[in-house]
Amino acid sequence: MLSLDGLVVRYGDTVAVRGIDLTLTDNEIVTLVGPTGCGKTTVLRAVAGLESPGEGRIRIGGLTIDAHHPVPPEKRRTGLVFQDFALFPHLDVYRNVTFRLRDTAPAEHWLTVLGLDAVRHAMPDTLSGGQKQRVALARSLAHAPALMLLDEPLSNLDAALKTSLRWEIRDALKAAGVPALWVTHDQDEALSVGDRVGIMRDGRLEQVGPPETCFRDPASRFVAEFLGEAAFLPGRHAAGRLDTPLGRASATDGPSLPDDVDVLLRPDDLTLSTQGDHNAEVLNGRYEGETRLYQLRLNSGTVLKARVNHEVVLAPGTAVHTSIAAGHPLTAFPRQT
Ligand SMILES: Nc1ncnc2c1ncn2[C@@H]1O[C@H](COP(=O)(O)OP(=O)(O)OP(=O)(O)O)[C@@H](O)[C@H]1O
User: Fold this and answer.
1) 161: CA distance to ligand 1 center in Å?
2) Would the CB of 185 count as within 6 Å of ligand 1?
């Protein structure tokens, strides 16, 4: 279990972390995401014991750490996985994973689970990036950590490997049953590997919740825009219903909304057709493989994006009909003038 209670971390006069409250349950994976410099790595470093908390408390298992009660990194039972793998270059895979281990059985287990049996006698510089990261993970897990800390574990790998390895790491963490704090700058990674996602901004957590909630019902425009393509369509709110020029929807948080709102529309919330009343014009399109993303200008002037099947090919300037297709409630914010 990990619990942060009002965590503040300073570097001299710079306040990098400005009061974070966060509790991870037994085998929960929480991803931390946010713009560069928002304090993600500093949170991880403070938990690992590489920075001291200026204020607040860190609890790891039975340990309580604060400014007056420091605990050295090696006593915290945290497993660290960094983007640069940090393997011992002069030791082979097996000796890297068993380093300082009295009982080598857990090392054998993780070498097998992570598909490293065939390279157990290879030296690190002969391994691929994905293999190096598996070795780093096996080494950490073999020490039976109380908590895993991962700092951009996939950022040095190519795109295809990133996607497959993210599932492998998630599966291994779940199999080990340890809680994990996973820092990434990649929104897709944060949404797909985290049981919960924490979105940081300027040293604070702006929202923490299940990925679907943060994506579909963001707490702020900042979170909405940070997690994916977002457009805001002026509309009216009444009794939990949202009325817009592109159709109606129910509101995620109706009672607290004013009458004049901006409705958050993700590209997959819209349909697009050349049939029907034309209410928009295609500005440009982007091929994405399975899908295409079109930027549209409504007759009212609002610019939106719609994501459709790749077979729908529309030239810039094409007149189209677009409407709200989302079956789920939509999030709206007080109208910004
Ligand atoms: N050793 C340091 N000394 C002084 N300031 C630092 C130090 N490390 C980080 N900072 C500052 O603390 C703030 C948070 O940095 P941090 O590295 O935690 O952010 P981050 O969200 O992990 O960024 P990135 O995504 O770029 O890695 C930034 O303003 C950064 O400049």
Assistant:
1) 27
2) yes
- Report the SS3 class of residue 281: strand
pLDDT tens digit string along 290-317? Answer: 999 999 999 999 999 999 999 999 999 9
Report the nearest atom of ligand 1 relative to the CA of 38.
21
Domain regions of the chain by residue span: 2-77+145-221, 230-334
Instruction: Ligand 1 pocket test: pick from 20, 42, 155 the residue with the most ligand atoms within 8 Å of its Cβ.
Output: 42
* Cβ proximity of 132 and 122 under 8 Å: no
If one counts every other C-beta atom within 10 angstroms of the C-beta of residue 255, the result is: 8
Query: Rounded to the nearest whole angstrom, what is the distance from the C-alpha of residue 38 to the centroid of ligand 1?
Result: 7
CB 48 within 8 A of CB 80: yes
Interface predicted TM-score of the whole assembly (ipTM), two decimals? 0.97
> For domain 2-77+145-221, is the CATH number 3.40.50.300?
yes
Pick the CATH number of 230-334 from 3.40.50.1000, 2.40.50.140, 3.40.190.10, 3.40.50.300: 2.40.50.140
